[in-house]
């Protein structure tokens, strides 16, 4: 039973990593930019989700406001920060992204205060027993939400004209443009979708921990950057597998080697070992 519980906890954590990292993978696959400021949107959404829920008593409204706002802010970041420097060396965009994330952290500290913010009455905290395994409702909702979002994203990418244009732009921007696909609109769409995914993850993590703080995006963002390398840069399927594997490794490692390493150290140790063995990642880069 312990094995099953740990595995489930790992999948819950891994699915959250997945929707953060998939957004990063989409952006990297299109622009070859490591979007560190993605973590700032994750944190922004968590603050908005908690604030709106506390103010109006509706978690659904909080999620909608957080998702739309973060998506729009993501597009603005692309337009104002990345678009003017796309013809520069890749490290220029990386430095800009890191600086932007640090600025966002400090802005959150000024607006919301240096201390944590919590739900006044945390929703979905009731315990549900499934086959003898005790789970909070928010954990179940987290997994369901993440699976549904990733399923919808896969369907859009494979079955719709928008998704086909999206994939074509990633594979060959010049050829896709010659067929009438507007690369600028595709970039805006990718930033909106990636930022919206980060937003959902931020609100779900706030639900799971009942705590939002200015630096909460730091560790998930570093792990997500490592995950997209581990899964193969730009490879969405590889990112999903790497995210779930990391979540499961963390869950088991916390029990069996937690006396020596904490959860974050276990995760990074696993990533370092794998990348030492296979530096290009588990799957082929796109």
Automatic annotation (TrEMBL):
GO terms for biological process: amino acid transport. The chain crosses the membrane at residues 6-26, 33-50, 56-78, 85-104, 140-157, 188-212, 224-245, 265-283. It is found in: Cell membrane. InterPro entries: ABC_transp_permease, BCAA_transport_permease. Keywords: Amino-acid transport, Cell membrane, Membrane, Transmembrane, Transmembrane helix, Transport. It is a multi-pass membrane protein. GO terms for cellular component: plasma membrane. Its main location: membrane. One of its GO terms (molecular function) is transmembrane transporter activity. Pfam families: BPD_transp_2. Belongs to the binding-protein-dependent transport system permease family. LivHM subfamily. This is Amino acid/amide ABC transporter membrane protein 1, HAAT family (TC 3.A.1.4.-). It comes from Desulforhopalus singaporensis.
């Amino acid at each position: 039973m312990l094995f099953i519980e740990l595995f489930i906890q790992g999948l819950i954590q891994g699915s959250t990593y997945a929707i953060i990292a998939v957004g990063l993978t989409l952006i990297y696959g299109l622009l070859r930019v490591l979007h560190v400021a993605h973590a700032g949107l994750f944190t922004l959404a968590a603050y908005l989700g908690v604030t709106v829920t506390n103010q109006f008593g509706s978690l659904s409204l909080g999620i909608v406001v957080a998702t739309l706002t973060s998506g729009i802010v993501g597009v603005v970041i692309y337009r104002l920060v990345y678009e003017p420097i796309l013809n520069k060396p890749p490290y220029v965009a990386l430095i800009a992204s890191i600086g932007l994330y640090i600025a966002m952290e400090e802005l959150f500290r000024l607006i919301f205060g240096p201390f944590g913010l919590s739900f006044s009455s945390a929703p979905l905290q009731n315990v549900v027993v499934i086959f003898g395994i005790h789970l909070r409702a928010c954990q179940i909702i987290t997994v369901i939400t993440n699976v549904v979002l990733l399923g919808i994203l896969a369907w859009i990418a494979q079955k719709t004209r928008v998704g086909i244009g999206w994939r074509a732009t990633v594979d060959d921007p010049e050829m896709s443009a010659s067929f009438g696909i507007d690369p600028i609109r595709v970039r805006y769409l990718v930033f909106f979708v990636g930022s919206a995914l980060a937003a959902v993850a931020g609100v779900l993590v706030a639900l799971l921990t009942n705590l939002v703080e200015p630096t909460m995006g730091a560790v998930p963002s570093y792990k997500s950057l490592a995950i997209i390398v581990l899964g193969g840069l730009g490879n969405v399927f590889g990112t999903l597998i790497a995210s779930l594997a990391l979540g499961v490794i963390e869950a088991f490692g916390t029990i069996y080697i937690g006396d020596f390493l904490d959860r974050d150290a276990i995760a990074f140790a696993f990533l370092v070992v794998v990348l030492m063995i296979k530096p290009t990642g588990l799957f082929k880069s796109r």
